[in-house]
Amino acid sequence: MILPHLLKQSAIRASAMIFVKFIGLIGRVILTRFVGAEGIGLYQIAYSLYGFLIMLSGGLPTVLAIITAKKPTVGWRFLKILSLFIILSGCIISLIIFLNSTVIAELLGNTGLEYTLRSLAPAILAAPLLALLRGYLQGLEQFSIIAASEVVEQVFRVFCMLLIVYHWLPLGVDRAVGKGAYATFIGVFVSFIMLAIYVSIDKKQQLRFPFDSPILPFVWLFKTSFIITLTRLLIPTSDFIDAILIPNRLVSAGYSASEATSMFGIITGMATIIAYAPTLITGALSHTMTMRIATYWQQGSHDKFQRLSRNSLKFGWLWGLLSATFLFVYSKELSVFIFITEDAYLSIKYMAAIPLIVGFREISTSILWSQDIKKVPFLGLSAGICSSVLIQYFLIGIPGLGYIGAAAGIMSMEIISSAWNIRALDIKKDEFIKIIPLVLMDIVAIFSTMGLVHHFTHSFQGTLPDITKFLTGACLFFLISGFYIFFRCTSFPTDLETR
């Protein structure tokens, strides 16, 4: 009964992740309405630095979870030792950021970042401690309390951020965003206190397992942690590079620092939020399927492994196609009705294929990881990031190509990393040829549905408000396409097989 228990725990964690990301999405949209493009640009730049710094210790929680799962008492000792290490190093980094916020803001290209950087300094210390405590609880398989703490953290962070920003907005956007950043520490602090109380009450965890190893494997811990950290630093590093590269290249193209920050906010704080929103579904699918397909692979149940893998890829394709079509056609409506501006609609249109490409990348990564092939996704993502940096550096610096260059860089990163994974799945040419008729049928069905829905809603031009037409069209499209996806997944099996 171990597998059903683990699957249940995984489902709880996945549900919490979806809820947390959804709350974050809503909070980001409301924040954008409050502070506008320049404000969200400041927010994105500051948080890219924050994400990079806290991920420098990103491997420690995972290693602590591994040790705790094997020997809980050793894990408890490591938790206390590593906490001291995190406190010392975190205090140093936090003080450096706090005392040199003005200099760092100038280096990042916008003096308005000073307030936000100063407000994020306490969270730079607290967040790694929270991650460490969650790693310990993960080793004890306490997934429910971890999921609850993630929800609590996000709810407090978003609520306090919006409340503080709204209160300070009359004093200026940069000050409002800066003061709102204190909400990150508030969310982390409340979540940490919640877990600390849980651990202190649940003293059985410390009494149940006798200490049986006087030697602590420090060398293995730091070596493994370093490798894991390198892997997890890829995305935060990419975001941080974007936060430096894009505004600076826009300034080189002739824009002012304020205009460059606003454009960066439109690209990363508006357009990418919308483009990546549908990937919440494929991300949840990827997270929940990983443990099951890994179990099938380890047990030698290759038929079940193949079936679940190809069904996941099929759903990723259909959901991605549906989402990409919707984003491309309704990009202007999404920009206007969500952010009250048309500025983001072209970037949304340029990146409309993101749900399809990212869906393939996430699902294929899960399939490869379940086979213990972890080097390929790492190399693919690294190659994608390098490609993105080069494309953005050259294109964004050309006057008039700012939005196109940024979108091209993001798309290139996702396309290369996804193609790298798909190639590693070792799908035979004959199998690709077999599914071409089904792929064409899907494209025709989804595109035809969108055409009919779009024509139907526009037949009420002048009689219904624009928002009513948009909502009607969206509901009809997703309803009809949803029925098609269900029909397609249950009536037309796919012959595509991975290795």
Description of the structure:
The protein is an all-alpha fold and 499 residues long. The protein contains 21 helices and no strands. It has helices at residues 2-54, 59-70, 72-99, 101-107, 114-139, 143-168, 173-180, 182-201, 204-207, 218-232, 234-252, 257-276, 279-299, 302-329, 331-339, 345-350, 354-370, 375-396, 402-424, 429-458, 466-491. It starts with a helix and ends in an 8-residue tail after the last helix.
Entry summary:
This protein has 499 residues and is mainly alpha-helical. It is 84% helix and 0% strand.
Number of helices: 21
Shape: globular
Radius of gyration, in Å, reads 24 Å
Spans of at least 5 consecutive residues whose pLDDT stays below 50 are none
Report the helical percentage. Answer: over 70%
Largest β sheet strand count, sense and barrel closure: none
SSE topology string: HHHHHHHHHHHHHHHHHHHHH
What is the secondary structure topology, with strand pairs?
Elements: H1 2-54, H2 59-70, H3 72-99, H4 101-107, H5 114-139, H6 143-168, H7 173-180, H8 182-201, H9 204-207, H10 218-232, H11 234-252, H12 257-276, H13 279-299, H14 302-329, H15 331-339, H16 345-350, H17 354-370, H18 375-396, H19 402-424, H20 429-458, H21 466-491
Helix pairs in contact: 1-5, 1-6, 1-7, 1-11, 1-12, 1-13, 2-3, 2-5, 2-10, 3-5, 4-5, 5-7, 5-8, 6-7, 6-8, 11-12, 11-18, 13-14, 13-17, 14-17, 14-20, 14-21, 17-19, 18-19, 20-21
